[in-house]
Specification:
Layout: H1 12-20, H2 38-46, E1 64-69, H3 75-90, E2 94-99, H4 104-116, E3 121-124, H5 133-141, E4 146-149, E5 158-164, H6 166-180, E6 191-196, H7 203-221, E7 225-227, H8 234-237, H9 244-258, E8 267-270, H10 273-286, E9 294-295, H11 302-309, E10 316-318, H12 321-336, H13 346-349, E11 353-356, E12 361-363, E13 366-367, E14 370-373, E15 376-378, H14 383-388, E16 392-394, E17 400-402
Parallel strand pairs: 1-2, 1-3, 3-4, 4-5, 5-14, 6-7, 6-8, 8-9
Antiparallel strand pairs: 10-15, 11-14, 12-13, 16-17
Helix pairs in contact: 1-12, 3-12, 4-5, 6-7, 9-10
Bound molecules: beta-D-galactopyranose (GAL).
């Protein structure tokens, strides 16, 4: 077993080869694994799961993985789908990959089709965490394990959750605002802020929002940070399907209603990049002031990285989704070969993450064991870190593009 702990910002090629070289320490144990599946029988039939350092070990042998992604209209999911598909295939799995156009009904159908196609395991990034019950119940009946990928699904058919630490994403945004504005030393100065959050159907959106608000709350309570519109509650600031045009329209309304009189806007807390894109556009075209407005984001989408270079967006919380896919594949291999699922698997992933059995529940009281990766803050000053992952290249103009 190769044991080498590497950071979240590591090149994909290196990590793929590392994971391909890993196998199980105790393949015969099955304590935390979900209900027996046909795939395990296939896996066992493949032979010796303890044979280390073979790319096509028992956990991959002939197994078919259904990968259900929410939409292609946001950049990150295209990257997730591509990495998962490529990396599963490179590890010897068969794959079925679907995108469901942000339509929950279509996602249910897509998953049902995968089950009819005899997939051995499902990896699902839900459009709506509460709207997949029909498909999830069918997966449970067919004894097909489900990994909730990035977004939790609120159904007990889900065996494991792989994501980033979602609360920390918001916390990093809040801490960044505190540092940049030096709020601890603000004295009597008041900074004006507006807030844009994510899709209420997405289980992550509340975590991002809460992580940021909890962090900023002392300054909001003290009056150092003032939300001029008074639109603070999640319901008031949420953005249906994380849509850029929805975020743009609301930002334009807020600017014309509360800032047209010359009131200075200092910061716009945005939960992710697609919403930050809309907010930045509104600030550029509709904000009367001339100061630089601090805008947060999340994902490292190309358009937002360009805005960061241009000084239109200030930061993004980067989530290396290639690493998220590597952890998922490592977990799938462990499930299919009947390994114990706990933190002892983490060294074999080769990716920094935490095993968390407390934070997430698929139903009241039903904890979902989770592997949570570590997000990083990216600003104009450390864009090179993204290039160093091997996942982005920097052009002569200083702008970054995703490397394919
Ligand atoms: C979240 C995801 C974010 C962002 C957002 C919009 O669930 O964790 O990274 O992409 O969806 O798709």
């Amino acid at each position: 077993m190769k044991r080498k702990l590497i950071g979240t910002l590591l090149s994909t090629a290196m990590v793929v080869s590392l994971v391909a070289g890993c196998s199980s320490d105790n393949a015969s144990e099955q304590t935390n694994a979900p209900t027996d599946t046909g795939s395990e029988t296939e896996a066992e039939a493949e032979g010796d799961a303890q044979n280390e350092d073979t790319a096509s070990d028992a956990s991959t042998g002939g197994a078919k993985i259904g990968i259900s992604m929410p939409t292609q209209s946001l950049e990150r999911w295209n990257r997730d789908g591509a990495y998962l598909d490529e990396q599963f295939r490179a590890a010897g799995f068969e794959t079925v990959l679907t995108y469901s156009d942000d339509d929950s009904g279509k996602q249910v159908n897509d998953i049902q089709n995968m089950l009819a196609d005899d997939v051995d395991l499902l990896v699902v990034a839900a459009i709506d965490g509460a709207a997949l019950n029909t498909a999830m119940n069918e997966a449970a009946e067919a004894n097909v394990p489900v990994i909730a990928y990035d977004r939790l699904i609120l159904n007990d058919a889900v065996s494991y959750y792989v994501s980033f630490d979602n609360y920390t994403v918001g916390k990093l945004q809040g801490e960044f605002i505190i540092e940049q504005l030096d709020l601890a030393n603000a004295g009597d100065k008041v900074y004006n802020m507006e807030i844009t959050a994510g899709d209420p159907a997405d289980n992550n959106a509340g975590y991002f929002y809460q992580g940021a608000i909890d962090t900023l709350k002392p300054y909001m309570d003290a009056g150092t940070l003032k939300v001029v519109s008074d639109q603070i509650d999640f319901d008031k600031v949420a953005t249906e399907q994380w849509k850029t045009d929805v975020a743009l329209e609301r930002a334009q309304n807020v600017l014309s209603s509360f800032y047209a009189d010359g009131t200075q806007l200092d910061v716009w807390l945005c939960s992710n990049d697609s919403t930050a894109l809309g907010v930045a556009q509104a600030v550029t075209s509709d904000y009367a002031g001339s100061n630089n407005v601090l805008i947060t984001g999340q994902d490292g989408d190309e358009a937002n990285l360009k805005n960061i270079v241009d000084g239109v967006q200030t930061m993004t919380v980067y989530k290396n989704v290639s690493n998220e896919s590597i952890v998922t594949i490592g977990l799938v291999k462990a499930i299919l070969s009947g390994e114990t699922i706990d933190d002892t698997l983490i060294p074999s992933f080769g990716i920094e993450c935490a095993f968390d059995t407390e934070s997430y529940e698929t139903s009241a009281g039903n904890k979902c064991p989770s592997f949570l990766l570590v997000p990083n803050v990216i600003t104009k000053d450390n864009l090179q870190d993204l290039v160093d992952t091997g996942l982005y290249t920097m052009g002569d103009d200083g702008y970054l593009s995703a490397a394919n």
